[in-house]
Design brief:
Layout (H helix, E strand, L loop, with lengths): L1 H15 L2 E2 L24 H4 L14 E9 L20 E10 L4 H15 L7 E6 L13 H7 L8 E4 L1 H4 E3 L4 E12 L17 E15 L2 E15 H8 L12 H11 L9 H21 L8 H20 L11 H8 L5 H4 L1 H32 L8 H4 L1
Parallel strand pairs: 1-2, 4-5
Antiparallel strand pairs: 2-3, 3-9, 4-7, 6-7, 7-8, 8-9
The chain binds serine.
Serine binds next to β8 and β9.
Length: 401
């Protein structure tokens, strides 16, 4: 997986004149419209809007690339309920990205995307399906269907693998307000040797979106869409999904991004991860996903708390503890014991994990002790009450309250 990340950056930095610009923290310190960084483009918002302070180094960027730390567990982009139940959504994930700030546009972006996937990474072109914006007068009034993008793609793929969709899939917005535009997505068929066009955007675990190229031309304002002074490119590829494709695995969790964490959960619980669709397997995935969101948030300065982003982090941590408690018999603190594996595995790419390792372990342990205490007491009290009202099978509202 480290090689996948490095190869992507190498392609854009060394091969295509992009500046490596480090990931911003996964908890933004300067954007009140976001709880978490939900996409690589967030930190460049002032550049897209033409509002970047010219004295800042960022103002000089024409092309940039990185792997951004993202969390989608609260706010407009929220995947929390799916995480662990399927094998390709995450609370915390990395988004490999390249950006153009008023430099190349659709033609250049699509060419680089195609070369990166089919030459640099050597993915089979026959397994790639492309979606583009087909128009949507309700959600993106006045924005025409993206025929230009379709024409450019026809140089690379046959028409039957080029599919139009409405704004829900092909007009990308970071939140209620902010830079946005029509997008073109690349979907990968994990099986191959067949026509999978009908499975695109159908939540099929074998045909997944891996990369999104957004052509930023508008700003969403409370009153509607406003054209921006310049045209930009914002792309984002799911690092864990690309790793899955490159490693020929069936699930993101079967890659070396998650295997060390799953192994550690197996050791701590004495159970095995069996790839069956059973509750213990969901618990394995929930835990090895959630530890990443919690650890990276704490490393970036966001501790669990009662409000805002801190409360989302507390809920994520408690969801993991509850799954461990209920389905893996983990009734002593265990989440903190995963941190050394995570820091060992990712600490080179993200040194903040190693630098903050002790703090992360301590904060998680304290949260675990307090929540396990609440959980044990609560379950005991609930069971007593359930027994008491067994005959009526109704728990009265005041008791629940
Ligand atoms: N911002 C777009 C996305 O998150 C592309 O990076 O999908």
């Amino acid at each position: 997986a480290d090689k996948v990340r490095e190869s992507f950056i190498e392609f854009f930095r060394d091969g295509n004149g992009h500046t490596f610009w480090p990931s911003s923290p996964c908890v933004p310190h300067d954007d009140p419209t976001l709880l978490f960084a939900n996409a690589g483009m967030n930190q460049y918002k002032p550049l897209f809007l033409g509002q970047c302070d010219p004295a800042l180094a960022m103002a000089k960027l024409k092309r940039a690339t990185n792997s951004q730390k993202c969390i989608r567990a609260g706010g407009k982009k929220c995947d929390l309920d799916d995480v662990g139940k399927d094998v390709y959504h995450h609370t915390y994930f990395e988004m490999l990205g390249n950006w153009s700030f008023g430099d190349y546009f659709k033609e250049g972006a699509i060419k680089m995307t195609w070369e990166c996937l089919t030459v640099k990474f050597g993915l089979d072109p026959e397994r790639l399906y492309i979606t583009y914006f087909g128009g949507d007068e309700v959600k993106a009034p006045g924005v025409p269907a993206d025929e230009e993008t379709r024409q450019i793609w026809l140089k690379y793929v046959p028409p039957e693998r080029l599919l139009p969709f409405d704004a829900a899939d092909n007009f990308w917005e970071m939140g209620d307000v902010g830079p946005c535009g029509p997008c073109t997505e690349i979907h990968y068929d994990r099986i191959g040797g067949r026509d999978a066009a009908a499975l695109v955007n159908m939540d099929d675990p074998d045909v997944l979106e891996i990369w999104n190229n957004v052509f930023i031309q508008y700003n969403r304002e409370p009153g509607g869409l406003k054209e921006l002074p310049a045209q930009h490119v914002d792309t984002g590829m799911g690092f864990e999904r690309l790793a899955m494709a490159m490693q020929g695995k069936q699930s993101n969790y079967d890659t070396d991004v998650f295997q060390p964490l799953l192994d550690r959960v197996a050791t701590l619980s004495g159970k095995t991860y069996g790839r069956a669709d059973s509750k213990p397997d969901v618990a394995f995935r929930v835990i090895s996903d959630h530890i990443r969101a919690v650890a990276f948030s704490i490393a970036d300065g966001q501790l669990p708390s009662n409000t805002g982003a801190g409360y989302v982090i507390r809920r994520i941590l408690r969801r993991a503890i509850r799954y461990g408690y209920s389905f893996l018999d983990l009734n002593e603190p265990f989440m903190h014991a995963l941190v050394p594996s995570l820091a060992g595995q990712m600490g080179d790419a993200f040194p903040e994990l190693k630098a903050q390792q002790q703090l992360i372990e301590r904060v998680i342990l304290e949260e675990e002790e307090s929540f396990l205490h609440t959980l044990a007491n609560g379950i005991e009290r609930l069971e007593a009450r359930l027994n008491e009202f067994k005959s009526t099978k109704v728990l009265p509202g005041d008791v629940v309250f």
